[in-house]
Specification:
alpha+beta, globular, 281 residues, 26% helix, 8-stranded antiparallel beta sheet, 8 helices
């Protein structure tokens, strides 16, 4: 699932190229991602005011005071094909657009914007901009890792209230918005804490280190334009390169880059978790 770094990558690129463009018409190839709003999307027109992000959710604001909420979920992609200077990057993508997984096409005055989704868990939702922060998807989001308030005091208060595995707490979007499986595994490695540790057993020193580690991997993920583990690509169809830097994620049985021990894999909350038995306590 695209996490904060992947969605932030798309947001930055979309803000640069989509702002000021006009939606001329929308073709809904599959109504599932828009549910009961098929007609509203087909009738949608207007200029794009800007692009924002809330956790893992992308928001495209229109001058008409409407907003398009986009959640990519597991395999969603948002790809723009238009300006010539981006054509070469677009061709590097491992899925051409449109394809059999393309669910919606936004026809713009300059180019096209495709929403594709292999597993069809992703969705788009049209809402009034003034009501955006009251939608369940955004209203219930926790603090983001790069917010000023995300510090050791905040995280300590979150962790000390539960015996759940610390990795599960990191991935709880109601507590911390934007962190998913990849970055939770990596942050815990750098914090030297095992993913299965009960959250309320972390010391203040470990909590402080975890805050720094979460910030570290999120910033690095953004700098590397995300992790293309499966179908994720940026706005121009190109892969991110964070997977080349992972220390434990998807490395079960391989040697730890720091100590040489074998990376172990366990399952927590239905998700695969990875850790070094020597580096992490």
């Amino acid at each position: 699932m695209p996490e904060l770094p992947e969605v932030e990558t798309i947001r930055r690129e979309a803000q640069e190229v989509l702002k000021g463009l006009k939606i001329k018409r929308v073709k809904v190839l599959d109504p599932k991602p828009v549910k009961s709003q098929k007609r509203k999307f087909e009738d949608l027109k207007g200029s794009i005011k800007g692009v924002r992000r809330f956790g893992k959710i992308l928001v495209i604001d229109l001058i008409s005071k409407k907003s398009i909420l986009v959640h990519l979920k597991m395999t969603g992609q948002l790809v723009y094909e238009g300006r010539k200077k981006f054509a070469r990057d677009f061709k590097k993508g491992f899925l051409e657009m449109p394809n059999k997984y393309t669910r919606l096409i936004f026809y713009l005055n300059k180019g096209k914007l495709y929403f594709s989704d292999l597993r069809k868990f992703g969705y788009l939702k049209l809402v009034a901009t003034k009501n955006l922060k009251e939608t369940p998807e955004i209203k219930n989001l926790g603090l983001e890792p790069l917010d000023k308030g995300f510090n050791s005091d905040f995280l300590q208060q979150v962790l000390e209230k539960t015996k759940r595995p610390v990795k599960i707490v990191l991935m709880d979007q109601r507590k911390i918005a934007g962190v998913g499986n990849i970055y939770a595994n990596e942050a815990l490695f750098w914090a030297k804490v095992r993913p299965q540790r009960p959250a309320n057993t972390l010391t203040k020193r470990e909590t402080k280190q975890l805050v720094e580690s979460v910030r570290k991997v999120i910033k690095e993920g953004i700098a590397l334009k995300g992790a293309s583990e499966n179908t994720y690509v940026d706005l121009f169809g190109a892969k991110g390169s964070f997977m080349k830097k992972v220390m434990v994620y998807q490395r079960a049985g391989k040697r730890c880059h720091l100590c040489g021990a074998r990376i172990k894999k366990i399952v927590l909350g239905g998700r695969s978790s990875f850790y070094c038995p020597k580096c992490q306590r």
